[in-house]
Predict the structure.
Amino acid sequence: MNRRNFIINGCAACLGAAVVPGMLSSCTSTRYINGVLGNNGLTVSTDAFRINKKNMVRYRSFIIAGHESLQYPVCIYRLSETEYTALWMRCSHQGAELQASGDQLQCPAHGSSFNNKGQVTNGPAAAHLRSFPVTLNNNELFIDMRKP
Ligand code: FES
């Protein structure tokens, strides 16, 4: 192996070592679940937020819940043990489906972003996201989808 190949291979290995763990952690942090859809809304278990690892319990900051009858999924953020927000993952600009990334929702169409309360943090979207009231009953979250 000559010096040039050694440098190229070394850089590729370092880049791979730096990027792959980040990709793996982001994959493990997003959880998609099917909720139970009733007449008034969607029900999901708070257990979906739990991460059991080595006798320690941690919690995801958000999960994405959907149902085959819903056109868009709902992103549910866990703000605390008793406080949650539920946001319709439809961009308020032109209706593209949003992507969750940490505490932000990003629009792949034109770049708008929203915080975990549905407020616009970057345009061109001007309106906040549709959000739903969330009720906690024991270990179940009820997402009330009755209001438009
Ligand atoms: S549809 Fe989301 S920014 Fe345009």
